[in-house]
From TrEMBL:
Family to which the UniProt record says this protein belongs: Belongs to the Gfo/Idh/MocA family.
Top-level class of the enzyme under EC nomenclature: oxidoreductase
PANTHER family: INOSITOL 2-DEHYDROGENASE, PTHR43593
Keyword vocabulary terms for this entry: NAD, Oxidoreductase
Protein name (Swiss-Prot/TrEMBL): Inositol 2-dehydrogenase/D-chiro-inositol 3-dehydrogenase
Pathway of action: Polyol metabolism; myo-inositol degradation into acetyl-CoA; acetyl-CoA from myo-inositol: step 1/7
Subunit-structure text: Homotetramer.
C-alpha cells in the first residue's frame, strides 16, 4: 500500500478565522499536520493550541514560520494589513500559500504578488474567496454557463451582517464585506466590470463610529452591460442575510435561503435566521480547503481563486472607496488581459 503523504501546514494569524481554520485543518481535512502557528500577540497562538488540545511550534515572528523546513504550506489569516508581506515572504521561500481575502490592500501590492508568483511558472497561491466552493453558488454558475435563464441582464444582492466590530469603517465594509460579491459576480458571469458607484442611503441609528457609512449601495456595470446592485449593511439587527438573484432573459436564478426547522407555535409560523458567516458558509470552507490541500499535497497548483482574482477584486474595491469618498461618482474600470498563468482555468 502506498504511503499516505501528510501536508505540513503553518498558520499565520490565530484570530477568529485563523482559529477556525486551525480546527478545520486538524479535525476535518485529512492528511494534514499543522506543525506551526504564529501570532504577533505573545501567548495568543499557544492559548488556542491548548484550547483545542493541539501541539505545534508557536512562533512570534512569521518569518520563522515561513522559513521552517517543517512547513510545506503557509496559510495566512493575519490582519489585512499584513497579508502582502506574509504572502510575499511565503512565495519567496517557495511555499504554496493560502491567503484569506483580501489578497492585499491595494492593486499595486497584488501586482507585486503576481510578479513573484510568475517566477515559478505555475500557480503557487490561492485566495480565500470561499463562495466559489459553496454548492448553491456552484450550481448557479453551472446554470448560467449552460444558458438556463438566457443571457444574464441584472444581479440583485444583499450582504447583511450583525457581527462586525464597532471599529469597522467604510473601507472595511468594502474590502472585507462587499468584496465577496465583487469577486463572486465576476466569477459567476465571467464578465469584466466597466464601472462602479457607491451610494450612501440614510444612516442607521446603530452606527457608533463616524468613520462608517452604513448601509451603502454598490452599483456596478459590466463590459456587456449587465447591471449589478449590492446592498451592504454591517449593522443589520436581525441576522446574517445573504441574497443573490440573477435575472436573465428567460428566467431568474434565486440563491436559496439556508433551511431551518420551522416552528408552529402561539398562532405563528416562523423559521430562524442565521447570525454569522461561519455557520452560513462552513461547508464551503471545508470544501475549499479539501480542494486546496488535495492539489498542493501532490505538488500541483491550486485551482481555486487566484492572485489575478485577488487583483481584480482589489482594483474594483479601490474604485468603490474612491466613489464613496467622492459622493457616489462613477468610477470607470479597466483591466489588462489576464496573464497566461491565470487564464488556464
Amino acid at each position: 500500500m502506498a504511503e499516505t503523504h501528510v501536508t505540513k501546514v503553518g498558520i499565520v494569524g490565530i484570530g477568529f478565522i485563523g482559529s477556525d481554520h486551525l480546527h478545520r485543518l486538524t479535525k476535518t481535512i485529512a492528511n494534514v499536520d499543522v506543525t506551526a502557528v504564529c501570532d504577533i500577540v505573545p501567548g495568543k497562538a499557544q492559548k488556542e493550541l491548548d484550547r483545542q488540545g493541539l501541539t505545534a511550534h508557536d512562533y512570534l515572528d512569521y518569518h520563522d514560520l515561513v522559513n521552517d523546513p517543517d512547513v510545506d504550506v503557509v496559510v495566512c489569516t493575519a490582519n489585512n494589513e499584513a497579508h502582502y508581506e506574509i504572502v510575499m515572504a511565503a512565495l519567496k521561500a517557495g511555499k504554496f500559500t493560502f491567503c484569506e481575502k483580501p489578497l492585499a490592500l491595494d492593486a499595486k501590492q497584488c501586482l507585486d504578488i503576481i510578479a513573484e508568483e510568475k517566477k515559478y511558472g505555475k500557480r503557487m497561491l490561492q485566495v480565500g474567496f470561499m463562495r466559489h466552493y459553496a454548492p448553491e453558488y456552484v450550481q448557479m454558475k453551472q446554470m448560467i454557463d449552460e444558458g438556463k435563464i438566457g443571457a444574464p441582464l441584472m444581479i440583485d444582492e444583499r450582504h447583511y451582517n450583525q457581527t462586525q466590530p464597532e471599529e469597522y469603517d467604510s473601507s472595511r465594509s468594502i474590502i472585507e464585506t462587499a468584496i465577496h460579491e465583487i469577486d463572486l459576480d465576476h466569477w459567476l458571469i465571467n464578465d469584466d466590470y466597466a464601472n462602479i458607484r457607491v451610494f450612501s442611503p440614510k444612516q442607521t441609528k446603530y452606527v457608533q463610529n463616524a468613520k462608517i457609512q452604513d448601509p451603502m449601495i454598490v452599483m456596478m456595470e459590466t463590459k456587456t452591460g449587465i447591471n449589478i446592485i449590492i446592498e451592504v449593511f454591517v449593522r443589520c439587527q436581525y441576522g446574517y442575510d445573504i441574497k443573490c438573484d440573477v435575472i436573465g432573459e428567460e428566467g431568474v436564478l434565486e440563491l436559496p435561503t439556508v433551511p431551518q426547522v420551522a416552528t408552529r407555535l402561539n398562532a405563528e409560523y416562523s423559521t430562524a435566521i442565521l447570525t454569522d458567516w461561519k455557520a452560513r458558509f462552513e461547508s464551503a470552507y471545508d470544501i475549499e480547503f479539501r480542494d486546496f490541500i488535495d492539489h498542493v499535497s501532490q505538488e500541483e497548483s491550486p485551482v481555486g481563486p487566484s492572485a489575478w482574482d485577488g487583483y481584480i477584486a482589489a482594483v474594483t474595491a479601490d474604485a468603490a472607496i474612491t466613489s464613496l469618498n467622492d459622493k457616489g461618482t462613477t468610477q470607470d474600470l479597466s483591466f489588462p488581459e489576464a496573464p497566461a498563468l491565470y487564464a488556464e482555468k
